[in-house]
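Dear support,

Our group has been running a series of protein-ligand predictions, and this particular one with 2NL is the one our PI (initials K.S.) wants archived with full inputs and outputs. We had some confusion internally about which version of the output was final, so please treat the block below as the authoritative record. The input we submitted was:
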Amino acid sequence: MSLVERVTALEAEVAKAQGRTAEEVERFRVAMLGRNGAITELFEAFKQVAAEEKRLLGQRLNQLKQSAQTRVDELKAAVDHGPDDSGPAIDLSAPALTEATGSLHPITIVRQRIVDIFARIGYTVSQGPEVEDDHHNFSALNFPPDHPARDMQDTFFLTHGEQLALRTHTSSVQVRMMESTRPPIRTISPGRVYRNEAISARAHCMFHQVEGLYVDKGVSFADLKGTLDHFAKSLFGADVTIRMRPSYFPFTEPSAEVDMSCTICGGAGCAICKHSGWVEILGCGMVDPAVLANCGIDPEVYSGFAFGMGVERIAQLIYRVPDLRMYWENDVRFLDQFAAGTFRT
Ligand code: 2NL
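Confirmed final output from the archive:
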């Protein structure tokens, strides 16, 4: 191969030179421009060239050396600063993969809101066992054995020596409070309660209650109504009103059912309030003097009021849950909707 042909071949080689890594680029540099590199060798051979050919060939050789050096610099720059496309492609504009965060259960959210409202007006929070004896769940609360009121609160019985059962209300917690502390007593008792009922969209064998109790000298029915009015306005909005209807509970006298003006239609009438403009939110009454006496409190000195509500029912009004069973199916499509900031009323 003549010197000119070798120059031409090397020009082509330099033009298509590639180098992905720093090592590859260095190998190319040494092969061309190193002490024994192809271009360096050409410069050696150039010394033997006849004087008349030297001018033209010398120009081409210098150009070749120059372009080889430029190519080396370009490839080095690409290795040093270019994107690393040796691994799998990464789309830097793609949205970040965030961790799935959980959320509070709707019953937890609503229970906390109810508890907060009463905690702010001086109520303590009390808790007690879910497995109760007959005295705390029934007898102390004026349900004598064989009284028909017991049929309305059938539950699940455990036969372990003495008769134990799953509590049917958290009144049992308040009985324990009255037995163990002196008035004034202002307490709310949130917790799980049980009823032996067929499960449907409107009933479950387990639900959550918040009960409230206020015992002191001179506690009146007006105090009860004022407290519940404050509660309803705090939870559902200042424009809400309540009404009380006479009712019956074994442990209160007089007793009442409390309705709230329908927040969905504003009282005009809709499917939720069955076109009455009112929805039931809780039951209440003045603590029966016999119940106070059963718990060691003198009904001649003290009086009190009590109330109880189902958390599922309140949550249903806030979130429009169509079926009570949805609370306990653990379907994330339901639960996800209660993630902080998701739900809009
Ligand atoms: C309801 C109604 C109510 C009470 C609970 C109570 C507790 C004691 C004494 C007297 Cl220790 N009363 N609690 C009173 C009236 C109603 O609950 O609908 N609950 C879901």
